[in-house]
Amino acid sequence: MSSWQARFLVRAQPGQVSPLLLIPVALIVLITVSSIVVPSDIVLGPLLVIAPAITAWFSGPWTTGIIGAVSVAAQAFAGWWLGELSSRNMIVQLIALALLTLLIMALSVVRGHCARELAQVRSVAEAAQRVLLWPLPSRLGGLRLASLYLASEDEASIGGDLYAAARAHGGARVMIGDVRGKGLPAIGEAALLLGAFREAAHRHATLPALAASLEESMARHLADFEPEEEAGERFVTVLLLEIPDDEPVVRMTSCGHVAPLLLGPDGRITVPDLAPAPPLGIGLTDPDGPAVEVLPFGEDDTLVLYTDGAVESRDRTGAFYPLTERITQWAGCSPETLLHHIQCDLLAHTGERLDDDIALIAIHRVPAPSGRRFGLGLQPGPSSAEGTSPSRSL
């Protein structure tokens, strides 16, 4: 049952009067008048059962019963008008119409119970999903943030993609990740990484240490819960960002995740050339941890983080969604407006058919208050293991 059907059924409870009642009433009048004026060898009276059947679709059992009673009365009136009320055929039609109305009322009661139960289940599921994937704050220090999540699974708000943000160590730390697989089966690993990040982001001073902590959490989870037939096949790609308050830079560590896009206010796009480490769950091969890349990130710049579902979504011809080319037209927009444009454009590209979960984050560096300036230079802070990252502009 789709979400709009569930909401419709919950609204159509007993005691509610709907303008849709005009439809069965009009049908009763039409069928009754037709039964009177058509030749006697044409019998239209049994069609009156359509009226309570339609009513049960949008209303409760009592309203359905009333419409059924009106249908029986209309059938009796037609029989009286034609002088056939006491005939055996007319009596059988009246009894059959009354019995069918009672059956429809019983089915309406069952339907209403199922609709209320479904509404309760949906409410609990939505609450659980909101607890698992917290919405990102709209402001985090000197940053404006917005997030977008499109789940491929029907009736789901989340799936195998994940994101989180926290204030830590004089700046903001952001994580976006993509669990191997999609939909509801991938939520377990997503929940694990979200909880681990929210705790570890405040405990580790450097991005490599944070990545190593997440790898340990992932390894423990897989050791306990990974099925033997899937050994070595469950992993998570993660991109970790650190944006200090006092430097116009962003530090990045990639564990198998795609690089973000840096959108300048003039529409220029910069794509950093990251040297990603293996995804979490496979094992970090470098004893010093993954490399940290540094990219200039100044006032009015916008970072767009995304999972591969955004760029691997196809249209009817099989063409991938050109995210890099499309976002240039929305340079200068707020993070919320930018993601709104991407969502509408992406869904139009795919025909609203998603084959994978999609997560996006837009991070905008707001201008510093008057009199404040960033620290001089772009020297990496204590969490950087490399110099400024090479990048390519588009």
The rough form would be described as elongated
- How many whole angstroms does the radius of gyration measure? 31 Å
Please write the string of helix (H) and strand (E) elements.
HHHHHEEEEHHEEEEEEHHHEE
Q: What class would the helix/strand composition place it in? A: alpha+beta
Unreliable runs: 1-15, 376-387
Q: How many beta-strand elements?
A: 12
Terminal CA distance: 45 Å
Q: Tell me the strand order in the biggest sheet.
A: 1-2-11-10-7-8-12
Could you tell me the mean pLDDT? 82
Give the % helix: 25-40%
Q: How many separate helices?
A: 10
Proportion of strand residues: 15-25%
The largest sheet is: 7 strands, antiparallel
What does it look like?
This protein is an alpha+beta fold. Helices cover 40% and strands 18% of the residues. It has helices spanning 3-11, 22-37, 50-58, 61-81, 88-132, 187-200, 207-225, 308-311, 323-326, 335-350, and strands at 139-140, 143-150, 161-168, 171-179, 236-244, 249-255, 261-263, 269-272, 293-296, 302-306, 358-365, 391-393. The strands form two sheets. Strands 1-2-11-10-7-8-12 form a seven-stranded antiparallel β-sheet. A five-stranded antiparallel β-sheet has the order 3-4-5-6-9, covered by helices on one side. Strand 3 (161-168) and strand 4 form a beta hairpin. Helix 3 packs parallel to helix 5 (88-132) and helix 6 runs antiparallel to helix 7 (207-225).
